[in-house]
Amino acid sequence: MPTRAHLSVSRSQTEVQGLKAYASVDMLPERVDMALLIIPAEFVLEELERCGRAGIKAALIITSGFAEQRGDDGVEMQRRLREIAKRYDMLVCGPNTEGFANTAAALCATFSPTVDALKIPLIPASRSSGHVAVIGQSGGMGFAFFDRGRPKEIPFSYVITTGNEACWKPLTSSITCWMRAVPTCSCFFGEHQERRNIQTCGRQGSTSLQTDHRD
């Protein structure tokens, strides 16, 4: 697998974890495949717009403070975020996500401690089929499946925690989902039934105080 560069962008630092930091996305010396945004919410829209202009086609937004919080400000920011992503034809995971792990590519764009200082391989050497993909809006729940399954040598292809939004296309044998809500069963299951994937789904409970932010 070829080694890919990791480029850091920081307005306040010239170096981040031993890597040279550039003051702006516009100053990066090469094309970037994916942007990982870990900045205060009030700066996310500006930076996502800048990423779009730079030709970056995928973004992972760890930052919280959007439609998951009370009030209209976060909802409006998330609406504008969607507009930017649509304008630049950009795949966006998040905001308010714990990130994802793509084990085949050894790409773990997450702050989950389950992939930190690993003593167990990301993919068991003894397993070449039957890989499982996990997707959950809850980062803790999504990576909990991964954390509990790996000691049992369950092979995971992807662990994706979506936060408030997600763009994903799994090519796996089975899909495990932890969801807050499903607008219609037909729109969710139709495509995956055609692929004949095995699906295991769980839905968390709700109360009268819970607010639905699917829009």
Structure characterization notes:
The protein contains four helices and twelve strands, in the order E-E-E-E-H-E-H-E-E-E-E-H-E-E-H-E. With 215 residues, the chain is of the alpha/beta class. It has two domains: 8-93, NAD(P)-binding Rossmann-like Domain (Rossmann fold), CATH 3.40.50.720; 99-203, Succinyl-CoA synthetase domains (Rossmann fold, 3-Layer(aba) Sandwich). The protein has a six-stranded mixed β-sheet, covered by helices on one side. A three-stranded mixed β-sheet has the order 1-3-2, with no helix packed on it. A hairpin with a 2-residue loop joins strand 2 (15-16) and strand 3. It is globular. Residues 211-215 have low confidence and may be disordered.
Tell me briefly what this model is:
This protein has 215 residues and is α/β, with parallel strands linked by helices. The chain is built from four helices and twelve strands. The strands form three sheets. Strands 8-7-10-9-11-12 form a six-stranded mixed sheet, with helices on one face. It has a three-stranded mixed sheet with strand order 1-3-2, with no helix packed on it. The chain has a three-stranded parallel sheet with strand order 4-5-6, with helices on one face.
> What is the end-to-end distance?
39 Å
Largest pleated sheet: 6 strands, mixed
**Main sheet strand line-up:** 8-7-10-9-11-12
The CATH H-level superfamily of the largest domain is Succinyl-CoA synthetase domains
Element-level helix/strand string: EEEEHEHEEEEHEEHE
- For the secondary structure, the number of strands is 12
Weakly predicted, low-confidence segments: 211-215
Number of domains: 2
What is the gyration radius calculated from CA atoms? 18 Å
Give the strand content: 15-25%
CATH level 1 class label of the largest domain = Alpha Beta
Kindly name the structural category. alpha/beta
The third-level CATH topology of the largest domain is Rossmann fold
Helix content: 10-25%
Mean pLDDT across all amino acids: 81
